[in-house]
Amino acid sequence: MLNEKLNLYNPEWLELVFADRNKAYGAYELRKTYGTTIAKAMAIAFSTVIIVSAGYTYAKSRRPVDKPRDFGKEIILPPPPSITPEKKIETVVEPKSAAPAKPQPAAATVKYTVPRIVPQEVDTEMPTVKELEGVEVGAVTSKGNGGQPQIVDPGPATGTGGIGNDSGVDINKEFITAELMPEPEGGAAGWSKFLNKNLRYPYQAQEEGKSGRVIVSFVVERDGHLTDITVTGKAGYGMDEEAIRVLKLSKNWRPGKQNGNAVRVRYSIPINFVLTE
């Protein structure tokens, strides 16, 4: 009885609810056909599920089974032929003999000799006091002619010579020899090294196959630099000019000295140009 009261879709409830209302609005019709509509919907849903399941099962049963492929007869290939490694033939190429190198002309060489001055030894005995009686002391010893010694008043000293110093040496004089002769930087070995580095054999002399010796004269100044470079012994073929060119490149020498003072010294050296075959 309670359930019947709670059934809102019972026709009696519908009539009671929609009494004196517009039943043509739509809500009345929906509630009236609710049971029929639900039954139809359920039937359609179940029918769809059944049809789909049946169709899937049918389609699966109709799928053809893959048969194994027949590839025909088995073909057996013969084994590959044995390959014998090819012998590598090595060819020995004898190197060509190198052509003999053309000898290069030798550089000019210089034989340098350091001059040595040996002072002359003078054997002079010291005079006795008795020998000094009645004679005049002088620079040299002489017998005289019996005259009396004269006392000479030297008077005031006046200079008439060149520029000198306390030692009496004219420092501007050009000496030919000196107590200590000039010397190039590094001595004979240094001078030989300088010439070997800077001296070039003249092209004209090489073409003509000429060798020669050049004598060069110059002045070693008090500070060691070289001036007045001239050729006193010519060899020609460009060797004279080359000797002068190289001497102008020389560094300062050690100057010559006289009585402990640096002086100007005239100096000469030979420069040999030797062409070797």
UniProtKB/TrEMBL annotation:
Predominantly, its location class is membrane
* Sequence segments annotated as region (Disordered): 140-165
- Record keyword Transmembrane present: yes
The record's annotation in Pfam families points to:
TonB_C (PF03544)
Biological process annotations from GO: protein transport; transmembrane transport
> Which residue spans traverse the membrane?
38-59
One GO CC term of this entry?
A: plasma membrane protein complex
Membrane topology summary: Single-pass membrane protein
Compartments it resides in = Cell inner membrane
Using the record's annotation, list all stretches that form the TonB C-terminal domain: 186-277
* Keyword Lipid metabolism on entry: no
The UniProt family comment states: Belongs to the TonB family.
Its recorded name reads Energy transducer TonB
